[in-house]
Amino acid sequence: MKVTIDGRDVELQEQKTILKLAKEMDINIPTLCHHEGLSNYGSCRLCIVEISNNGNAEIDTSCTRYAEDGMVIETETEKLKERRQLIGELLLAQAPESEKLKDKLQELGVTKTRFEAKDSDCIVCGRCVRACNEEVGTGAISFVGRGYETKVDTPFSINSDVCIGCTSCAEVCPTGAIEVEDEGATRYIRYFNTELELKKCEECGDYINPERMIEKLKEEDFSYYPEENFNLCVNCRRSREMNKFADKVLEASK
Ligand code: SF4
Ligand code: FES
C-alpha cells in the first residue's frame, strides 16, 4: 500500500490510521479526544486532514480514518488551519474555564471564542468513559443527555456503587474537569458525586487506595504479587522488601 503524506511517499505493510502513520513520520497533527491507550472515538475533530484519492477530495479525522492505497494526504493547509481554529473556538466555548484546554488551544492560536460560553468544563471527548470501560472494565460512568446537553455522569447522578476510585478518568481528562481529593479516610470524586472508603496501610496507618480498588486488583492475575503488599503503602512496601533483601544477603554471607 502506497500513500503520500505532506508530499512524502511512504509504503505501508499493515493497516494503520493516518494519525498513527503521521506520528511515525514525525508529522504533528493536533489531537484532543485521542489517547494512545484507548479506542478511537473521533469526537473533537481537531485531527482533521485533507485526503484525496481516485479523484475524490474530502476532509476527515485522522485518528479514525485508515490509510488506503493511493491516498494523498495533507495535514497542514490553510483550509485545515482555519477549520481547526473554528473547532478550537467551539471547544473553548464548551469548557471556557479550563486552563488545561486553554493551553492546548493556544498552540493552535485560539485564545478566545465567538460562541456562547457554556457553564461546563467538559468537552464530551469521552476519554474518561473509554478509560473506565476499556482499561478498568468498570463502566461506572457513561454519556447522559442529548445534543448540547450531553454530559458524563454516573447512573442517576448518584454515588457510584461500582466505581473503584482508581482515578483513571481524571488522569486522561484533557480539561481537568475531574478532580480527585483524598480527605482522611475518604476519596472524593465530586464530579461524579462519588466517594469511597480508603484502606489504611497496615504498617504505618497512612491511608492508601480505596478498599474497592484493592479488592478489584486482587481479582486480577496477580499471582506473582505477594498478597501482603496490597495492604501496604509504597514506602512500607519498599522498606519491607529492602529488609527482606538485606536478610537474604546477610544470610548468604554467613
Ligand atoms: S470529563 Fe473530561 S475526559 Fe470526560 S468527557 Fe469530559 S472532558 Fe472528556
Ligand atoms: S483526536 Fe481525532 S477526532 Fe479528536
Automatic annotation (TrEMBL):
Transmembrane feature ranges: none
InterPro entries, alphabetized: 2Fe-2S_ferredoxin-like_sf, 2Fe-2S_ferredoxin-type, 4Fe4S_Fe-S-bd, 4Fe4S_Fe_S_CS, PSI_iron-sulfur_center
4Fe-4S ferredoxin-type domain ranges (all copies): 113-146, 154-183
Keyword Protein biosynthesis among UniProt keywords: no
Coiled-coil features, chain-numbered ranges: none
One Pfam family this sequence matches: Fer4_7
Domain of life: Bacteria
Keyword Metal-binding: yes
2Fe-2S ferredoxin-type domain segment(s): 1-79
Entry's Gene Ontology molecular function annotations: 4 iron, 4 sulfur cluster binding; metal ion binding
Keywords tagged on the record: 4Fe-4S, Iron, Iron-sulfur, Metal-binding, Repeat
Function: Ferredoxins are iron-sulfur proteins that transfer electrons in a wide variety of metabolic reactions.
Protein name per Swiss-Prot or TrEMBL: Ferredoxin
Lineage: Bacteria, Bacillati, Bacillota, Clostridia, Halanaerobiales
